[in-house]
Specification:
This is Aldo/keto reductase. The chain has about 280 residues and is of the alpha/beta class. It contains ten helices and ten strands. Strand 6, helix 4 and strand 7 form a beta-alpha-beta unit. NADPH dihydro-nicotinamide-adenine-dinucleotide phosphate binds near residues 142, 192 and 242.
Length: about 280
């Protein structure tokens, strides 16, 4: 792998991570991923697989200090006390004594809390305190749109190091990404492969043939060339390898632009302003 990404708090993260949502045989998938060179592993309490992620990391034999483990506080655990409790439970399930990165998975919003901005700030305060106690190296958010981030920043002691967002050529969320750049907040891309929804895209297939790479490799390379950290999930050892084998070529500026101009047609339908009424538009 090439260059790491330095977060605004100084922590260095690998340029590609490994997603574990719905990873079949999670422990084995995580061990394979670590064997293939992944060092950043993404999980969440809601995935129900933190115990298996911990087992996979343990069985990899790689020193804890060389691994970067992310988990997230779920929607039902927002608030100061609930978030602290959720963190402790995640840590225990993972069999770890600290996390590298802990995120608010989805923001509270005006549909589910009258005082949604306070709820997000109180949750954030719990993460700040846990970081201060040395239990988390870096703290961040996920699925925060400008309205959530701007309110949070007004009261935060610590600027989030990361905002993990849906991001792929078919859904580029440029407004929030630009705001993150302004605050030196690193973006991580969830569903970086759009769960296969872009596999038939003509531009991606033409570029893939030109470089002799797969469509997935082209998408991931396009992502890392923007200093955005993709966290692709696969439970298949060949695809796990393929998704990290993206550091022996570079997309030209012209091909980057072609991919960035793909119509926005791959959105998952999940938006931070809709929960809990509905998740799909
Ligand atoms: N913060 C948040 O709200 C969210 C975070 N996430 C995180 O992001 C991670 C990645 O996102 P995810 O939604 O899983 O989707 P991805 O975009 O990573 O796509 C995963 C799907 O693509 C397939 N796949 C993987 N690699 C390849 C390849 N090289 N060629 C063809 N198909 C491939 C996988 O199948 P197979 O396993 O068979 O290879 C799987 O079906 C999650 O696992 C999770 O950790 C995800 C959603 C929301
Ligand atoms: O992290 C996640 C995994 O995928 C789920 C379903 O798309 C999301 O809701 C959740 O945020």
């Amino acid at each position: 792998m090439t260059e790491s990404i330095r977060l605004n708090d100084g922590l260095l993260l690998p340029p590609v991570g490994f997603g574990t949502y719905k990873a079949e045989s999670t422990a084995e998938a995580v061990r394979t991923a670590v064997e293939c060179g992944y060092r950043l592993i993404d999980t969440a309490s809601v995935y129900g697989n933190e115990t298996e992620v911990g087992q996979g990391l343990e069985s990899s034999g790689v020193n804890r200090g060389n691994l970067f483990v992310t988990s997230k506080v779920w929607r039902t655990d927002l608030g100061y006390n609930a978030a602290k409790k959720a963190f402790e439970a995640s840590l225990k399930r993972l069999s770890l004594d600290y996390l590298d990165l802990y995120l608010i998975h989805w923001p509270a919003n005006s549909r589910n809390f009258d005082d949604w901005a306070d709820v997000n700030s109180e949750t954030w305060c719990a993460l700040e305190d846990l970081q201060q106690e040395g239990l988390i190296k870096s703290i961040g958010v996920s699925n925060f749109w400008p309205e959530h981030l701007e309110k949070l920043l007004k009261r935060a002691r610590v600027v989030p190091a990361v905002n993990q967002l849906e991001f792929h050529p078919g859904y580029q969320q440029r407004i929030i990404i630009e705001l993150c750049r302004q605050h030196n907040i690193t973006v991580q891309a969830w569903s970086p492969l759009a769960r296969g929804r872009l596999a038939e895209d003509e531009v991606l297939n033409v570029v893939a043939s030109k470089y002799g790479k797969s469509v997935s490799q082209i998408i991931l390379r396009w992502t890392v060339q923007q200093n955005i950290i993709p966290i692709p999930k696969s439970a298949n050892s060949n695809r796990i390898k393929e998704n990290i084998d993206i550091f022996d070529f570079e997309l030209s500026a012209e091909d980057m632009s072609h991919i960035s101009a793909i119509p926005q047609k791959g959105f998952s339908g999940e938006r931070p302003d809709l929960w809990p009424d509905r998740q799909r538009t």
